[in-house]
């Protein structure tokens, strides 16, 4: 008779071993050591190589298949179907508004939500508006080379937002529409942190639920200090990166200061000035 808890412990150990095999194979695939089209060893061969059972190997391969890193066919075997993504888009953290309109023109966008909602919570506070004031809310997904890289939720005060339509927002950069409405952009404040993909975001960005994402919150203001846009953005870290040029400054050059990069300095992949 099996002692109480022994079965659960055995299952847990099996899952842990499967996770280890999965991580090793996943790392080799993502690093290019196992390139697209390469055929993997059989389950028996992998089990012998890693000192585990065939059941454990099967669990690991099943997870890789669910992530669309490998393809399994009875008559052919298991082969790698993962293709490395192009170099990630980069954006300038020191020049917040530089080249944003250019990025909007050179990437594809899909508008997946558009409505007017009452101002609430952190968004209302950041924009400095009354709780009963209406905000135009839009959710867009941007893609480069047909691969989605950002999930953007924007809120714009109604008096500004009524100057452009849903169709225009689906085809033109928001910054361009704000300027057309007569808004004189003055400055922006942004915060960058980390977030996780919720089911809706994961589906839109073609990643797994719970995947790590770059999270950015930006508030854009006009020259008078009036906030005109609140942006909450989530980026795939394999498709979007932040960089910054720094120079030594201050007394005895003991500090670092950011340097704005000149337009046109980067390659075509760089859609905003690199940070």
General description of the model:
The chain has 275 residues and is of the alpha+beta class. It folds into two domains: 6-80, Arc Repressor Mutant, subunit A, CATH 1.10.10.10; 89-259, Chorismate lyase-like (Chorismate lyase, 3-Layer(aba) Sandwich), CATH 3.40.1410.10. The protein contains nine helices and twelve strands. The chain has helices at 6-30, 43-50, 54-66, 100-106, 121-127, 158-161, 166-171, 174-180, 199-205; strands at residues 70-73, 77-80, 89-92, 108-118, 134-144, 147-157, 185-196, 212-222, 227-235, 240-243, 245-249, 255-259. A six-stranded antiparallel sheet has the order 4-5-6-9-8-7. The longest helix has 25 residues, at 6-30. It is elongated. The termini are far apart. Residues 92-102 and 263-275 have low confidence and may be disordered.
SSE run = HHHEEEHEHEEHHHEHEEEEE
Let me know the average pLDDT: 80
Number of domains: 2
Distance between the termini: 63 Å
Principal-axis shape equals: elongated
CATH class of the largest domain reads Alpha Beta
The helicity comes to 25-40%
Strand order of the largest sheet: 4-5-6-9-8-7
Name of the CATH superfamily of the largest domain: Chorismate lyase-like
Could you say what the CATH architecture of the largest domain is?
Answer: 3-Layer(aba) Sandwich
Number of strands: 12
Radius of gyration: 24 Å
Task: Give the percentage of residues in beta strands.
Answer: 25-35%
For the biggest sheet, the summary is: 6 strands, antiparallel
Low-confidence stretches: 92-102, 263-275
CATH fold-level topology of the largest domain: Chorismate lyase
Structural class: alpha+beta
Number of helices: 9
């Amino acid at each position: 008779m099996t002692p109480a808890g022994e079965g659960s412990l055995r299952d847990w150990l099996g899952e842990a071993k499967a996770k280890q095999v999965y991580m090793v194979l996943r790392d080799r695939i993502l690093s290019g050591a196992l390139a697209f089209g390469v055929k993997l060893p059989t389950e028996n061969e992998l089990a012998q190589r890693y000192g585990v059972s065939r059941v454990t190997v099967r669990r690991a391969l099943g997870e890789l298949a669910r992530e669309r890193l490998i393809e399994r066919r009875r008559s052919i075997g298991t082969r790698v179907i993962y293709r490395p993504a192009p170099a990630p888009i980069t954006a300038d953290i020191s020049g917040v508004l530089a080249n944003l309109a250019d990025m909007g023109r050179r990437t594809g966008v899909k508008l997946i939500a558009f409505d007017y909602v009452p101002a609430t919570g952190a968004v209302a506070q950041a924009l400095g508006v009354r709780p009963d004031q209406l905000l135009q809310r839009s959710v867009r997904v941007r893609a480069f080379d047909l691969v989605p890289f950002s999930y953007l939720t924007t809120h714009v005060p109604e008096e500004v937002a009524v100057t452009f339509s849903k169709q225009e927002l689906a085809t033109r950069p928001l910054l361009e529409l704000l300027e057309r409405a007569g808004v004189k952009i003055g400055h922006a404040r942004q915060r960058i942190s980390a977030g996780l993909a919720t089911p809706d975001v994961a589906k839109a960005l073609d990643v797994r639920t719970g995947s790590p994402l770059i999270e950015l919150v930006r508030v854009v203001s006009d020259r008078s200090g009036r906030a005109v846009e609140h942006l909450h953005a989530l980026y795939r870290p394999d498709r979007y990166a932040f960089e910054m040029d720094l120079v030594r400054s201050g007394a005895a050059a003991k500090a670092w200061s950011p340097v704005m990069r000149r337009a046109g300095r980067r390659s075509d992949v760089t859609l905003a000035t690199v940070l």
